[in-house]
Specification:
Elements lengths: L3 H16 L8 E8 L2 E7 L9 E8 L8 E9 L3 E3 L12 E9 L2 E2 L3 E2 L5 H4 L6 E7 L2 E7 L27
Antiparallel strand pairs: 1-2, 2-5, 3-4, 3-6, 6-7, 6-8, 9-10
């Protein structure tokens, strides 16, 4: 047998398993979005991926070790197409951050796909207030409350309330 003989046998042995490992298409439209004081990483499945695909998610802070990606444990092997990136370990919402996701199957992984950075303090979408309205004779009392994620420090938010008599365009 020539010198290439043992290597050729090894390649022939590994070839069938490599053929079964079709690469997975990466997730598409990976986006960080804010809704009701929360931040979510969303994506669409890659075209042609099998039904048993799950996803892994990680996030990265811009200033605190920008080269380090942290796993999002609650979104490891998820079948969902969205992952909340709120209240994560060592997350600093006063820093901009981004997320990434990859498709995973038992035999293959897709490349990671990253979102753009999001600055929580400047890009967060506040939740609409919960209004409790009570009226007694001539007094109309409106109480507006809001719910922050449990990891957020209490904020003194102020809402501007306009009201007017039905049928008129004049605000009071």
């Amino acid at each position: 047998m020539t010198r290439a003989g043992p290597w050729a046998l090894l390649l022939l042995y590994l070839l069938p398993s490599a053929e079964g490992r079709a690469p997975l298409a990466p997730p598409q439209n990976v986006t960080l979005l804010s809704r009701n004081f929360g931040v979510y990483l969303t994506w669409l499945p890659g075209p042609g991926n099998p039904q048993n695909v799950t996803y892994r998610v990680a996030y990265q802070s811009f200033l605190a070790a920008p080269e380090r990606w942290r796993k999002v444990g609650k979104c490891t092997r998820t079948k969902e197409l969205m992952c909340s990136l709120m209240c994560l370990e060592k997350q600093d919402l006063f820093n901009k951050f981004k997320g990434r996701v990859r498709a995973v199957s038992p035999n293959a992984k897709s490349p990671w796909v990253e979102s753009k950075y999001l600055e929580y303090l400047f890009e967060v979408e506040p939740a609409p207030p919960v209004l409790a309205v009570t009226q007694t004779e001539e007094v109309l009392k409106v109480n507006a409350t809001y719910q922050l994620p449990p990891c957020m420090p209490l904020s003194d938010l102020k809402y501007e309330v306009d009201f007017w008599k039905e049928g008129t365009g004049n605000k009071m």
